[in-house]
Design goal:
The chain is about 40% helix and about 15% strand. It has 11 helices and 12 strands. By secondary structure, it is α/β, with parallel strands linked by helices. It has 2 domains: about 200 residues, NAD(P)-binding Rossmann-like Domain (Rossmann fold), CATH 3.40.50.720; about 90 residues, UDP-galactose 4-epimerase, domain 1, CATH 3.90.25. Strand 5, helix 5 and strand 6 form a beta-alpha-beta unit.
Length: about 325
């Protein structure tokens, strides 16, 4: 019997890395081809321990390269698309690359599947930010999309292409929209690793506005398990929200991290809010829980503690990739 072959795009990034590691730790009979352009958010060291594993093949490339995507998709059973520009601040400073990577790149994948491998299943990793913010209640999958930033607009456009390709060409595609991930290998520009790193260096920890913006946090391995289950059980053409119910104001999250690290709250520094900053995200994930049987396994506090310990124990990892601009309190003002 042929082993399942998964084409992962963006597998050297945060969630992609954790997904590949999750697959190899839980399956012996799955092969993974990892297509990644090794941009600023990727790190080849993330999967160095699998370089000589017969189940793993790395290909340096870009989903914006249609010919390359076609070659790799030709014999894939499943395509999991993590490849994306993801940082809202960067999208404010330079929107064009977000359109090219997140929308046109996804289009290339869909068109390659349509032309060369229409039986493949596509799992497109989207974001809760496509809904915009919500002051009360939680978004279900049938809410209209109302993105607030160039980043979320590029992801919303990709989601709509997914829907169109399923309806028009009967492509087997599933869209996932997950809340904020955290855990090992996350790029230092994101709130949790940035807080840990700056606090460890006794630098000020910047918080936008009043710090009352609310996010629902999920440990990355819970997200990976949800994706894995959808590969086998998800219904074609459907959207699935993925959330854990760990809603916290940014200020409370930062204070928790500082407390766990034994750092004083005087490190907190409120800075100018970024444009279009959504106040609250909240997803209703009852669909994936009821249809697929998924639920998060990790407690929030325990996962935060493990994440802090990982960054403190892997200083060499983040020192090599930390651009000084990431330490700027208002990076959305910078040109990247």
């Amino acid at each position: 019997m042929n082993r399942m072959k998964i084409l992962v795009t963006g597998g050297l990034g945060f969630i992609g890395t954790n997904f590949i590691r999750f697959i190899f730790e839980n399956y012996r009979d799955i092969r993974v081809v990892n297509l990644d352009n090794i941009s600023y958010g990727a790190n080849p060291a993330n999967l160095k321990d699998y370089e000589n594993d017969s189940r793993y093949r790395f290909v340096k490339g870009d989903i914006r390269n249609y010919k390359q995507v076609c070659k790799l998709i030709n014999d894939a059973d499943v395509v999991v698309n993590f490849a994306a520009e993801t940082h809202v601040d960067r999208s404010i400073a330079n929107p064009r690359i977000f359109l090219e990577s997140n929308t046109i790149g996804l289009y290339n994948i869909l068109e390659a599947v349509r032309q060369y491998n229409p039986k493949a299943r596509v799992i497109h990793i989207s974001t809760d930010e496509v809904y915009g913010d919500i002051l009360e209640g939680s978004f279900t999958e049938d809410y209209p999309l109302k993105p607030s930033s160039p980043y979320s607009a590029s992801k919303a456009a990709a989601d709509i292409f997914c829907h169109a390709y399923h309806r028009t060409y009967n492509i087997d595609i599933i869209v996932t929209r997950c809340t904020n991930n955290f855990g090992p290998y996350q790029f230092p520009e994101k709130l949790i690793p940035k807080t840990i790193i700056r606090a460890n260096m006794n630098l000020k920890v910047p918080i936008y506005g009043t710090g009352q913006n609310v996010r629902d946090w999920i440990y990355v391995l819970d997200h990976c398990e949800a994706i894995d289950m959808l590969i086998y059980k998800g219904r074609p053409g459907e959207v699935y929200n993925i959330s854990s119910g760990n809603e916290l104001e940014n200020i409370k999250l930062v204070k928790m991290i500082l407390s766990l690290m034994g750092k004083d709250e005087s490190l907190i520094e409120f800075v100018e809010d970024r444009p279009g900053h959504d106040l609250r995200y909240s997803l209703d994930s009852s669909k994936i829980r009821e249809e697929i049987g998924w639920k998060p396994k990790y407690s929030f506090r325990k996962a935060i503690e493990e994440t802090i310990n990982w960054y403190l124990s892997n200083r060499a990892w983040w020192e090599l990739i930390t651009d000084k601009r990431l330490l700027n309190p208002t990076p959305w003002k910078l040109k990247w």
